[in-house]
Amino acid sequence: MHLSTAPTTIRSEWRREFLSVLPHNRAHAGAIRAAIAVVLPIAILSLTGHPTLTLYATFGAMAGVFGRHATYAARWRLQAAAGLALTTAVVVGTLVGVVAPASFLAVMAIAVLSVAGLLLSRRIGLLPVPSLFLVFATGSTSAFAHASADLIWAAVLPLGAATFAVLLGQVGRILPSLRDSAAPSTPAKHGLRPAVPFRDILGAPGVRRDIVRYLVGPLAAGALATAVGIGHPYWAAVAATVPLSGATLGAQLGRGSQRLVGTILGVALAALLLSFDPPLVWLIVIVAAAQLWAELFILRNYALATVGVTPLALVMVHLASPLPLAELVSDRLVETVIGVVVAVVVLLATRSPKPQNHPVREATIGRF
Fold first, then answer.
1. Is residue 64 within 8 Å of 79, Cβ to Cβ?
2. Residues 6+ apart with CB under 8 A from 278
3. Angle between helices 104-124 and 131-142 in degrees, nearest 10
4. Is the pLDDT of residue 5 over 80?
5. Where are the domains of the chain?
6. What single string gives the DSSP state of each residue in 55-119?
7. What is the value of pTM for the model shown?
8. Can you list the alpha helix ranges (DSSP code H) found in 169-301?
9. How confident is the model at residue 322 (pLDDT cuts 50, 70, 90)?
10. CA-to-CA distance for 295 and 73, rounded, in angstroms?
11. What is the rounded distance in angstroms from the CA atom of residue 183 to the CA atom of residue 72?
12. I need a surface site. Which of 27, 250, 309, 322 has the fewest CB within 10 A?
């Protein structure tokens, strides 16, 4: 057995991934931008009497989490690409919701968007790999029935929110006092790279295996949760996508463990907060705090970030389609377990006896 897959090495990699917390590295700059980008559309829609539309806008706003350490020139292009991808995912999910909500068709759409996110990342260097966000966006919007007219909102709101997030990422260009010192001054460090031809992408080491993983993981998890009849099958698909971006098997297993632990803690926190039946204004405050917390830790320790991600996700669902708290909490826990278990099975079934070198992944997205 190769050293990279030896049990002792896997345990060491798992421990390092699970326990280590990376330095702050001006995480607050990107976290504040991302929080504003998400919270402002939610606040406007909710306070004007349209809380059910917040889900559409939220996913477009998530374009702001990309390119946080890129040059300003590269950042807006990367975030614009992410915004278009997220808008596409919302439209696809809504279309499925018009035709066959919460069905196996929804699961298939989720799997296709998962692979699309991987290929987009490899083509233009979009990091983190957007598959997780695309799965979340497609799954959330396909989970309930839509009228055909909702397709207009599904296109306009995420695109508008993404545009706002892109503009917010360029504030430092206009106001030097707010310039992000983490954005490098030399484009060669974190600039926009030329697009990689798909032929080269498919010929790169390990890519075809990754495509299988990003297809089968969310597909199997979502199909299993749908067959069992749990209320939010896409949560299982999201959880199955999380471990796939790790650089090594040990790191991937560590991310799966982080997802489980962070979800348990986050569910407990969300249950406590929602048990008080907070009014709309306080729900918006919770979203702001949860988003800020998640972005502060998302590149540093995924378990800590998930403690914020979980209340954020549950409040988003609560705003769009309120459900009994017990049902919401139990669905999140059960489907997270399903997703992580499926991901581990897929990873073990497709692991290679030889190490695969993914320098960009190891340096940039091992923790997202």
1. yes
2. 286
3. 150
4. no
5. 26-364
6. HHHHHHHGGGGSSTTS-HHHHHHHHHHHHHHHHHHHHHHHHHHHHSTTSHHHHHHHHHHHHHHHH
7. 0.90
8. 171-174, 187-190, 198-203, 207-228, 233-241, 249-275, 280-297
9. confident
10. 22
11. 7
12. 322
Identify the band that residue 177 occupies on the pLDDT scale cut at 50, 70 and 90: low
**Amino acid at site 136:** F
Tokens of 1: 């057995």
12 is written with which tokens?
A: 């060491």
**Residue pLDDT, tens place only, 242-296:** 999 888 999 999 999 999 999 999 999 999 999 999 999 999 999 999 999 999 9
* Sequence-distant (≥ 6) Cβ neighbours of residue 190 within 8 angstroms: 69, 70, 71, 74, 183, 184
Which of residues 176 and 326 earns the better pLDDT score? 326
Q: What pLDDT does residue 354 have?
A: 61
Q: Write the DSSP symbol of residue 192.
A: P
